Amino acid sequence: MMKEIDCRGLACPAPVLQTKEALERGHPSVIKVVVDNEASKQNVARFMTSQNLEVSIQEVGSEFHIIGTVGGRPAPESIVDEKPEGAHRKIMVMVTNNCMGHGDDELGKKLMVSFLKTLKEMGEELWRLVFVNNGVKLTIQGSNVLPIIQEHEKAGIHILVCGTCLTHFNLLDQKKVGETTNMLDIVTAMQLADKVITI
Amino acid sequence: MCGMTFPTNENVLVGLDRADDAGVYRVTDDIALIQTVDFFTPIVDDPYWFGQIAAANALSDVYAMGGVPKTAMNLVAFPLKDMDISILRQIIQGGLDKMTEAGVVLVGGHSVEDKELKYGLSVTGFIHPDRILTKKNLRAGDRLILTKPLGTGIVNTAIKGGLASDDIIERVTHLMATLNRKAAEVMSHYPVHACTDITGFGLLGHMAEMVSDTPFGIRLTSKAIPILPEAIEYAGMGLVPAGAYKNREFRECMVDFVPSVDRLVQDILFDPQTSGGLLIGVDPDRAEDLVTELKDQGAEDAAVIGEVTTEPRERIVVD
Q: Which of A96, A114, B18, B197 has the greatest count of CB atoms below 10 A from its CB?
């Protein structure tokens, strides 16, 4: 199901808003947005990336065709609904602190090491790891669990780190793993996940 | 306005030949006139606050020159057929309240009918001819102080898109309506060498103006720069105004980012600001004291964000 929208002649943020609306309304598997200026091109591409679409850009004369594909590959023309046969469940784990549980922080930190290591037992169902609030401190230089998270990333698990939180702690440039993200991404991920586990 | 010639005379102390925040004309040996004009289309929905922001923005150029604004004239374009006149009253009331706060008297104005609403001021201020603060008088070692956080352009784009939260709308509205008056008063007691206000060209655009055609460069510490956290979030969603991309395209050639500077932060450094803060170049020995006093006087986000260097010349290095 391909959706095409014409955003020529529109100024920012209109192209991003129209893209957002088209994605929300029709749930197309492929979306093509036509714009005629550099700023709109970059903003729409950035928005699609933030929505986890795979983005490709074609320059056609003075126009740009930005094509976003859900799930990173074009879906067949037929309507794809729900999960295809044999697909895994998608589990999202949201880490809101740098220690696990309340009571003793030293113990909590040890538990967090163990928790992040053991997460791989979820196998292919582990889909996304999201770090917010104090949790973002696990993703920075010097964090004792950094190698574990990097290993998850290597294994193809999508790591998202809250940008507002990094900015708040003044750690934006110390983040060593994952993508800097925003609340819209996090909320979208929650919606897409089959199960959300918050630690 | 390339290719056009503009006659001048010896009393023009700051004119078109070296475009600054405002024009300055010497009246006597002790008094010079500062003149500036600025107006724009609404950036917030509330007409009263729009009036305040437009006035604060227009008055800012006088403060950035080190002067004191004294009189102002309203500039109004209003769609009489489509909009209730009470909206205009609220806008003008907002502007008037801001002028009163600044000790400025409204002495006149002009309005035209237009399809699109616009409001702003033409402002006149005074300054001693020896105390004019231009953009281009930085000295090696000067510390650069910014008095308001960056990101208003991106947040305004999110407001336009209906994606901004109420909290940030309120924060950014108050921020834009805040006069640079206190900051200007405070800096007048310090060895300040150069000053400008951050507006449409973004922080890096205005910094580039400060060092181009001079023997100096700037080293900027991105971590020290006050930034609205929501601006990072909205930039990540592609809510970056076209102006930010234009600013980047125009000045990129003068800027070196070390690779660890996040792309979203880079965008914010090019983000066009409305009624932004002052960027002050001050003697290094007094920089910390100036920041402390600015904070005491209400510029809570004021911070030293960089310093003036001799190498590399006419470049801004952001780490």
A: B197
* Domain B12-131 identical in fold to domain B143-318: no
Contact A41, A35 (CB under 8 A): yes
CATH 3.90.650.10 fits B143-318, yes or no: yes
Domain B12-131 fold: 60s Ribosomal Protein L30; Chain: A; (3.30.1330)
Task: Look at residue A72 and give its three-state secondary structure.
Answer: coil
Q: If you measure CA to CA, which chain A residue comes closest to B233?
A: A182
Q: Which residues of B touch A163 (CB under 8 A)?
A: 229, 232-233, 236, 264
Residue entry with tokens 């003036």: B308
Q: How far apart are CA B282 and CA B302, in angstroms?
A: 13
Write the secondary structure of B168-221 as one string of H (helix), E (strand) and C (coil): HHHHHHHHHHCCCHHHHHHHCCCCEEEEEECCCCHHHHHHHHHHCCCCCEEEEC
CA distance linking residue B80 with residue B201, whole number of Å:
32
Nearest CA distance, A36 vs chain B (angstrom)? 12
Confidence of residue A79 (pLDDT cuts 50, 70, 90): very low
pLDDT in tens, A94-132: 999 999 988 888 899 889 999 998 998 888 889 999 999
Locate the domains of chain B by residue range. Answer: 12-131, 143-318
Whole-model pTM: value is 0.72
Residue of B nearest to A166 (CA): B229
